[in-house]
Amino acid sequence: MSHRSDFTDRHIGPNQYQIQTMLLELGFKDLDSFIKSVVPNNIHIKGEIEKAIPSAISETAALAEISEIAKKNSIKKNFIGSGYYGTITPAVILRNVLENPGWYTAYTPYQPEIAQGRLEAIFAFQTAVTDLTGLDIANASMLDEATATAEAMTLARRVWQGSDEAAFVIDTNLHPHVKAVVHTRAKPLKIKVIEIDFSSTDFAGDIFAAVIAYPNSTGEVKDISKIIASVQSKSALVIVNCDLLALTLFKTPGEYGADIAVGSAQRFGVPVGYGGPHAGFLAVRTGLERSLPGRLVGQSVDTHGNLAFRLALQTREQHIRRDKATSNICTAQVLLAVIAAFYTMWHGPQGLKAIASRVQGFAYNFRGALRSSGFDVANYEIFDTVLINTEKARQIFDKAAQSGFNIRLVSNNSLSVSFDEQSTENDLSQLLTIFGSKLDSSEIPASNLARKTDFLSHPIFNTYHSETAMLRHIRTLSDRDLALDRTMIPLGSCTMKLNATSEMIPITWPEFNSIHPFGPADQAAGYTQLIKLLSDWLISITGYDAVSLQPNAGSQGEFAGLLAIRNYLDSKGESARDICLIPSSAHGTNAASAVMAGMKVIVIACDENGNVSLEDLKLKITQYRSTLAALMVTYPSTHGVFESAISQICEMIHEAGGQVYVDGANLNALVGVAKPGKFGADVSHLNLHKTFCIPHGGGGPGVGPVIARKHLAPFLPNHPANSSAGPTTGPGPVSGAPFGSASILPISWMYIRMMGGAGLTKATEVAILSANYIAKKIERLFPVLYKGQNGFIAHECIIDIRELTKNTGVTVDDIAKRLMDHGFHSPTVSFPVAGTMMIEPTESEDVRELDRFLSAMESIRAEIAEVEAKQVSIEDSPLRHAPHTIGDLVRNDWDRKYSRLIGAFPNGESFGMGRGGKYLPTVGRIDGVYGDRNLVCSCLPIEELASN
């Protein structure tokens, strides 16, 4: 066994001896012969990416290399604003949340009993948003401010009861990137968008909603009560695009009577990072909560009657409602929302108001000084932004840049300057010098729009102001979770693999996280280089020709890819092609994304082996030949197998005039062994947060680049603020920033650079090997539902529990909850087939961990056997009472048919639970139906949480 000195051996869990052991278990002598038996010969490649990807280098060398790239970014003082602001991440949050794997390696909380910490933190975020906006319910966050506004538009359209011809009205003074994303989203849905400045509120024709900027992009904060009244008189909904920090000083959208509020929580402790990731927000009045897109954390109760948090309403909504889903967004920006929540707790209401007042003071003093110097500045109320009208705009802009200050060039005759938490007295003085002015202190005038209502009055926002208290609160919540830093998370389709520490280090460097997305391009030379290198590598890995890194989630990548197909067909005069064929096994987001792109969904059946039914596909192609736009197919399939007919399927679609979209969710089973761009696909999205190691962060952030063949390249996303972000012929932006969540791209760059082409290939091969090792071992306990050629699976396997459920009453939920007692997160439950579990080990877990999981499943199978033999009823089995909490185990009235020891230590583990230590959930099994019927989405009463 060789000394493990390079990164590849550190990333890949099994060592060579363990790899050989697994191969022998499966009847093979080496990885090459094994992979040839699994991957269809007509798509298998070998050695291709090794030629295209640089050879692997050490972690130390990679950090040195990316440090040189980072130094090419120029750090300037940013006063650009436009939705992206300087902020100070409290060190206690930076070190213990953003840099803590207990937070960034967690998965979306589908198993709430082992996610109470992050659920409570998200709940606090929702509460902060509702308090600050004055509305009743907020979701768990959106992808960014611009997409939140677009989602609000489609929400309003869904609940609109009037004419389909009704228009959507947007404020001309919204930030330009917000308007651009709204236009991109509206076009395929055939929504008419009207831009006005609201100087007149006499709307011609029907409107279903209007979005008002408050403050607007020029800095003005105005009384919007008359606008709102006028919009609502048309039975239309009012959306207010607002700034959370400003709302500590100004009247809330809720007080005005608005229906929806949207915006960004970026300035609550999350660095600008060249545009993302950041937590957008969307809040609604009562009555709209069941149309709310994205995730929503609410309260329920566990089996012991204790209050507990869980995802409500939207959990797996896309997989249930598919093309009828309210949105294609299946997650949230959880890690960033958590940071914003802790930032809010750290500062509390008084601290936030002090920051806001200081920012506003800078703006008024700056504007007053300019006015005294003869500059043309408006006299309206402002928060942080000053608009200056001057014929010398370009000269002043250039002078500021030469002095190390980035300000916004609004037009050839106007500039704006936006202040933020990082602004200082010295900055103000230097800015005034640039403008040829001197400080002339100005009083902030009394405002009729001042906020008079209390906010953030709950103890959670008024308790953790010392570092000791905050540190312990963060640790307390983290201890309630089960993340990848404790145990394997064998979630099929979700690819929970190692997010190496070295990959994470660069994201907190100021050279990456302090660059403004709308700053001069020459200040982002390092980002330009990194994006080019990463893009080229992704193209080489996939066999495509062009890529856009802009989509900031897999769902957005899907939308962008389908939009490229839609616009390509339109450019050929084939607008009538609007049918998207989607297999019944597909990810639910596929259908929702197709609808967003203006397509109609037709479902293709799967055969008894879980493959796309060629017979049904032929029938549907014949039926829809003249209107066929695309086929969306996941490869390897959502059923966890390599379908040998994939090339034939692609040819069938192309012959009928359609395009092939291959969902890249399972790309981690293809890297180095097959290229979708070569076996017939036209476009894909890639989940960098799965295949290329960007952490899931409890359900976000994600990055979902869209990558395509040459003929679709002209139709990939572009951006009005950066001509290098996409082709001029593109459909517009799909996210707020030109390069989406750019600040986490260094993670994937580091991963590829340290793995090299050979390492990436080996990672794929070991992931497939580990999955087949588990499948063979577990098959004697539970039947494996689907297999591919030669009886093998791809990178994940589905075990079928349905017959056991029929015979014993034991459900997949019982198994999932009992696994918590073993210290494991459950595999994926009831997807893609109800009553099954999908297991994916990834390449990161060594054989000891795989065997520990198998041992847990064997113990659970033995408990099921006791129910089968009628030695115990399911109601009396530890399976039904799982998970076991400390409170449950130590209660005086223990009356179970099994011992406390069996409850806590299911298969006789030692009290130390081996190398992982014993994990105990803090709540028992949560009642999901109760939570959905009794939707509670605001903080608990003070007395309930006062002891925390």
UniProtKB/TrEMBL annotation:
Per the record, its GO cellular-component terms are: cytosol; glycine cleavage complex
EC number(s) per entry: 1.4.4.2
Uppermost EC category? oxidoreductase
Write down the required cofactor(s). Answer: pyridoxal 5'-phosphate
Q: Which residues form a coiled coil?
A: 850-877
The family this protein is said to belong to: Belongs to the GcvP family.
Name of the protein in its database record = Glycine dehydrogenase (decarboxylating)
What is the native source organism of this protein?
Answer: Candidatus Nanopelagicus hibericus
